[in-house]
């Protein structure tokens, strides 16, 4: 709330798919709008998923173009940076942007100017950037996939959203939120009976229920149960059917067999390692946390390599854990 009301600097939201980065970006915008001084009306909230932007289309969508700038440019186009002038631009999956777009974006953040495709003069836009990503941008910098200067510029305010499996306290409030949302949409009260609600929340909070797509899986589950129950309250049969559906879907992704042949000692250890990995912004950061004591006794520290080799023993990779692959331990 302090950052939203007091800062216009870029904000970086990190976390796996479905943890709520878009919802948080919209919440930040609403907070900014509610705290804007009288007479200083905040501009629009403009959002785009950078994974959908490719080639000339990426430059054109973000920065606009002049008529004839490229084949198919039949008229002048105003880009999203101009649309966001005076407001907030949310670039989700910013790690998917090409290096040319990253360079232009950096200039726009630093001095408020950019050059539309085919234009002879720069344009101006004053906007606040909120960037979202489920990638490790520091790793992308090392691989030459992301500009180090851009990362340094957008990493001033960085917030990591934990996976739903690590937010057990959020399950019941979000269940209530989803039920209220459906009740408003349907014009009637939607609810569980007591036994069914207890069963679903117990399943939702079980350590082996890792919510592969986080809130997207959670919201979809509620939607299906509400739809199938119709005008009736959601009862045990609907909950049990949904639990089977979710488990079957996660099995089809082929990542739920990791812990089947592990001793309890290894299973408990691996569960804790996975939790720390999912909460950490990078492989190196997770390694520093996990090897905080033993690394002091080594002449050289290579926490990333140690953690990578540990995960490999269980046929796991850092990407598996950060991209929400379901791992049933």
Strand content: 5-15%
Task: Tell me the strand order in the biggest sheet.
Answer: 2-3-6-1-7
Determine the mean pLDDT.
87
Shape: globular
Residue stretches low in confidence (pLDDT < 50, at least 5 long) are none
Number of helices, counting only DSSP H or I runs of 4 residues or more: 15
N- and C-termini, Cα separation: 37 Å
Structural class: alpha/beta
Can you summarize the main beta sheet? 5 strands, parallel
Q: What can you see in these coordinates?
A:
This protein is 48% helix and 9% strand. It has 15 helices and seven strands. The strands form two sheets. A five-stranded parallel beta sheet has the order 2-3-6-1-7. A two-stranded antiparallel ribbon has the order 4-5. With 329 residues, the protein is α/β, with parallel strands linked by helices. It is globular and about 65 Å long. The model has no long low-confidence stretch (mean pLDDT 87). The two termini are 37 Å apart. Helix 8 (171-186) packs across helix 10 (215-229) and helix 9 packs parallel to helix 11. Strand 4 and strand 5 (123-124) form a beta hairpin.
For this entry, give a set of tags:
329 residues, alpha/beta, five-stranded parallel beta sheet, 15 helices
Lay out the secondary structure.
Blueprint lengths: L1 H5 L4 E4 L6 H14 L10 E5 L5 H9 L16 H4 L4 E5 L6 H13 L1 E2 L8 E2 L3 E6 L3 H6 L5 H7 L2 E4 L10 H16 L7 H12 L9 H15 L6 H17 L11 H16 L3 H8 L12 H10 L5 H5 L7
Give a nutshell description of this structure.
By secondary structure, this protein is α/β, with parallel strands linked by helices.
């Amino acid at each position: 709330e302090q950052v939203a009301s007091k800062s216009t600097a870029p904000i970086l939201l990190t976390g796996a798919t479905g943890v709520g980065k878009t919802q948080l970006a919209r919440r930040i915008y609403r907070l900014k709008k509610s705290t804007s001084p009288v007479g200083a009306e905040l501009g629009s909230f403009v959002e785009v998923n950078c994974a959908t932007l490719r080639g000339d289309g990426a430059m054109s969508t973000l920065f606009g173009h002049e008529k004839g700038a490229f084949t198919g440019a039949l008229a002048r186009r105003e880009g999203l940076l101009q649309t966001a002038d005076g407001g907030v631009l949310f670039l989700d999956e910013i790690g998917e942007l090409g290096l040319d777009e990253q360079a232009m974006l950096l200039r726009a953040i630093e001095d408020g100017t950019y050059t539309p495709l085919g234009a002879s003069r720069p344009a101006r836009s004053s906007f606040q950037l909120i960037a979202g990503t489920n990638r490790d941008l520091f790793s992308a910098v090392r691989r030459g996939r992301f500009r180090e200067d851009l990362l340094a510029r957008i990493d001033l305010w960085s917030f990591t959203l934990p996976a739903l499996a690590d937010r057990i306290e959020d399950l019941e409030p979000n269940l209530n939120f989803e039920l209220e949302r459906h009740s408003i949409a349907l014009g009637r009260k939607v609810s569980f009976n007591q036994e069914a609600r207890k069963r679903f929340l117990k399943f939702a909070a079980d350590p082996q229920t890792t919510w592969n797509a986080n809130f997207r899986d959670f919201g979809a589950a509620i939607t299906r149960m509400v739809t199938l129950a119709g005008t009736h309250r959601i009862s045990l049969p609907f909950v049990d059917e949904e639990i089977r559906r979710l488990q079957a879907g996660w099995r089809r992704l082929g990542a739920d067999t990791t812990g089947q042949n592990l001793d309890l000692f290894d299973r408990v250890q691996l569960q804790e390692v996975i939790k720390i990995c999912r909460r950490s912004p990078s492989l190196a950061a997770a390694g520093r946390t996990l090897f905080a004591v033993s690394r002091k006794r080594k002449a050289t520290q290579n926490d990333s390599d140690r953690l990578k080799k540990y995960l490999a023993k269980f046929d796991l990779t850092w990407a598996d854990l950060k991209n929400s692959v379901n791992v049933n331990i």
